[in-house]
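Please, structure for the following, as C-alpha cells.
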Amino acid sequence: MKIIYSPIHKKHSPKWEIINGKNVSYAEVPERIEQIVKELQKNGMSSCIKAPKRFSERYIKSVHNQHYIDYIKKGSQKEAKKKGNDGYFTTFFINDLCAPLTPFTYDAARESVNCSLTGARLLKEEPVIYVLCRPPGHHAEANRMGGYCYFNNAAIAAEYLSQNGKVAILDIDFHHGNGTQQIFYERPDVLYVSLHVDPRVGFPYTAGFANEKGANDGKGFNKNFPLPLGTTEADYEKILTKACNLIEEYKPSSLVVSCGFDTYEKDPIGGFKLSIPFYEKMAKAIKGLDLPTLVVQEGGYNITDLGKIAYSFVKGLN
C-alpha cells in the first residue's frame, strides 16, 4: 500500500470558526494528519509514504466552477497581505461559517487535490492507495465551500477515474457528503453511497435524506443511509453490508472511499458508538469488494486516538 502525504497542509491553520454565533477554536487542525502519519511511521510504514505529484488546475475545474476556484485563490492572496491573518468568511461562496479563507488556504487545498489525483493515478499500479488529504473535501460543492472543505478531493479523483469506467464512491464520514452528492447527482457513471448521521440532527442538515436518489440520468445512482445518533457497531455493520452490496451490483471499475473517522465513539463532534478495532473490520468489508480502491481522508477530530483509528483501518485494507 502507498500512502500519499504532503506537509503543505500545515500552512492552512485557521484559528476559529463560528458555531451558533460564537467564535470557537477550529476543529480541523493540522495535528489531525500529523498524528496519523506518526502512528503509521511508528508501525513500520514510513517507506509507504510518498509525496504527491503536481497536477494542472484543469482537474479542479472538472468539478468546480472557475469563478469559485479564482475566488479561493484571490481570497487567500488577499489574506496574505493583511497583518492579522485570522481568516475571513464570505456570503456567496459559503454554505456555513466553518470554512474561512487564510493566506495559505488555496495552497493547501490545491495540494490536497494533488494528493488525491496522485493516488488516483497510482491505482493503475496498486490495488489500494490511502491519501491523507487536508483540508478535507466532501462538503465542497461545485461553487460552495463549507464544513472545513474547499475543493472536493474525492469528487475530483472520481472524475479522473471515470475516464476509464464507472466509479463508485462510498462515504463513511459521520457527516453526509453534500458536496459530492451535488456534483454527481445527475450522472449515472458515478454511484454515490453514503452512511452518515441523520441530517435532521446533524450537519449538514440540508442534505443526506433517504429520498435523495439522484435526478435525470442520475436517478437511482445516489443512495443515502441516514443513521440515528448512538448507532452501534452491529447496526452500522448491517448498513455497511447493504452499501457494499449496492456497489457490487453496480460493477464499477474503481472505488473511492471518503473516509471520515468522526464516527468514532469518542469523537468530539460525532455521535456513533464505533470502537478503534471496528475500523479494521470495516476496512476488511470494503476490501472484500475486490476493487481498485482510493481511500481519501475526510473528517475525524479526536486527535489523541486518530492515528490509532487510521492504523486499525489500514490493517483491514492490508
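The chain has a mean pLDDT of 95. The two ends are 7 Å apart (CA to CA).
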